[in-house]
Amino acid sequence: MQAILIVDDSALARMMVKNIVSQAFPQWEIVEAGNAQDGLEKVKNQQIPIALIDFNMPGMNGVDLAAKLMELYPKISIHLVTANIQETMRLRADAMGIGFIKKPVTRDDIVRIIGGSDGGV
């Protein structure tokens, strides 16, 4: 079974992404976390091929979480999901080799990301 990690301090944002994933890819397990530290704990000893991470969160931000996840899981596909659409943020994501999705996330965004992995429909 494939799994996707959704990390966002907004319960509403997590719910919206979770609903899209569960409808478009019902076979995928969804791992949710409200902050970066919780996200790291929840994926410990688990293979997660895709992570959707908010940038602005209390404590560790999404870029720092992405760096830690890439260290632990070199093959993970990470996408920064943020309302912060400044060019510097996009360039930072590009430099790290992670995707960039602006909020609000659409069904097409999610389908493109998951469908582009080896778990698509």
From TrEMBL:
Origin species: Candidatus Magnetominusculus xianensis
Gene3D superfamilies assigned: 3.40.50.2300
The protein, known as: Response regulator receiver protein
Signal sequence region: none
4-aspartylphosphate PTM positions: 54
Pfam families per UniProt: Response_reg (PF00072)
Top-level taxon of the source organism: Bacteria
Keyword annotations of the record: Phosphoprotein, Two-component regulatory system
Annotated ranges, domain Response regulatory: 3-118
Matching InterPro entries: Bact_response_regulator, CheY-like_superfamily, Sig_transdc_resp-reg_receiver
PROSITE patterns per record: RESPONSE_REGULATORY
